[in-house]
């Protein structure tokens, strides 16, 4: 999904759902959402949230993992 409510704001989101076909209660979910705010013509502020979930992960890995990143984006 991509939304551009104004010329200076963009919201982009991608999600995946991956079930195990022989056991639907064993699934994975992955989602990434980014917000891009244009500051000047070639300079933008970007924040991205990533979330991953695995119903039955390997023993030492947590079921849910997430990450939030922020940064400046310069385009040539």
TrEMBL record:
InterPro entries named in the record: DUF481
A Pfam family the protein falls into: DUF481
Highest taxon in the source lineage: Bacteria
Protein name: DUF481 domain-containing protein
Native organism taxonomy: Bacteria, Pseudomonadati, Bacteroidota, Flavobacteriia, Flavobacteriales
